Amino acid sequence: MSLAFHKNKIFIFAFIYLLIFNSHATNLENEEYHFNLKDIIIKQIKALKSGDKNLAFSFASPNIKNKFANANNFYSMVKEFYPQIYNSKKYIFGDTIQNNNNKYIQIVKFYENEIHTSTAVYFFVKTESNIWKIDGVVIKNVETNKI
Q1: Is residue 23 part of a domain?
Q2: Residues near 143 by Cβ (< 8 Å), separated by ≥ 6?
Q3: What is the DSSP letter of 129?
Q4: Lowest-pLDDT range, 4-18, 72-86, 108-122?
Q5: Other C-beta atoms within 10 Å of 102: how many?
Q6: Is residue 146 part of a domain?
Q7: Residue 57: is its pLDDT beyond 60?
Q8: How far apart are the first and last CA of the chain?
Q9: Is residue 25 scored above 60 in pLDDT?
Q10: Is residue 65 part of a domain?
């Protein structure tokens, strides 16, 4: 099966997760820490684009750090499998959602030439040190009717 099929399957799983586990979800538009989550994403994207692998990796959760072992592996993975993020010229933040289990999700829309090309779902966890970290990203390309 193709990589696109697996990405679509993961994206669908993420939204099912949102629907099932967020039956009492709270939209966090007015909460102060909402901006902290956005700031983490902005800083990680800037670090990725500038080639600062260690800084980009520092925003990853312990779970993600264990999966990729080091900043070089993480950076290579992002460049290869998340070009929508790595090559993005513009992105706009959507909703921030908190579910009953204190899991936080940030929606981000990515654009190319002013056209919405993909939507990312960022998953956040709070570490034992009480610091927010990115615990995964699922991205879905938007179907366009380009000629």
Answers
A1: yes
A2: none
A3: T
A4: 4-18
A5: 9
A6: no
A7: yes
A8: 27
A9: no
A10: yes
